[in-house]
Amino acid sequence: MNPRVDELLDYLDRSAATLDAAIATVPAAQHDQRPAEDRWSVREVVEHLALVEAGITKSYRRWLDAARAEGIPAEDQTSPLLAQMRMDRVVDRSRRIEAPPFAVPTHGLTLDDALARLERSRAELAALARSADGLALGVITHPHPALGPLTMYEWLAFTAAHMERHAAQIAEIRAALRA
Questions:
Q1: Cα–Cα distance between 102 and 52 in angstroms, integer?
Q2: Paired strand residues for 141
Q3: Superfamily of structural domain 3-178
Q4: Which of 130, 143, 170 is nearest to 39 (CA)?
Q5: pLDDT in tens, 39-90
Q6: Is 38 buried (19+), middle (13-18) or exposed (0-12) by CB count in 10 A?
Q7: How far is C-alpha 6 from the chain's CA centre?
């Protein structure tokens, strides 16, 4: 497999582990508790992640199918990508970002259901990325509503960074609930 895909899938796995660790620090009895009226609970954060990742995965499949139909070239680069990507702007929690309507948790999923959906989307996205091994994913771009055009490599990194952002949010929730 191309080292670039491996690097980004490893980042996705590390971010998922960070999220799982953050969730584990909040007592189960507090998973539905909001730290403030205008803030999400742990369960709602995970539901948001599941909604966003499902949307990204669906789009990624569509983009990949279109790229294959158009004859995407083979990847001729193997250099690392993550260090040059600006994912710090995604992870940075100093700026509040309003979720688009489709990504606002309103479905009332249990935490377990939301985690299961998130895991399914993450596994499907990873499988799609693996299936694209050997394709020049850096030449295909699609717009992100807040970040502008992202390559298909950057969409994988965004997914991981978005998970890290919300793992940090869960740490904030834990601190607020303890206070």
A1: 8
A2: 151
A3: dinb family like domain (1.20.120.450)
A4: 170
A5: 999 999 999 999 999 999 999 999 999 999 999 999 999 999 999 998 999 9
A6: exposed
A7: 16
Are 1 and 130 in contact by the 8 Å Cβ rule? The answer is yes
∠ CA 11-155-152 to the nearest 5 degrees? 110
The number of C-alpha atoms within 13 Å of 47 and in the hemisphere containing its C-beta is 18
Return the domain boundaries, the chain.
3-178
Three-point CA angle 98, 100, 106, nearest 5°? 100
- Residue in 177, 174, 176 with CA at minimum distance from that of residue 24: 174
Does the reported pTM lie above 0.85? yes
- Beta strands 141-144; 148-151: pairing state: antiparallel
Residue type, 12: L
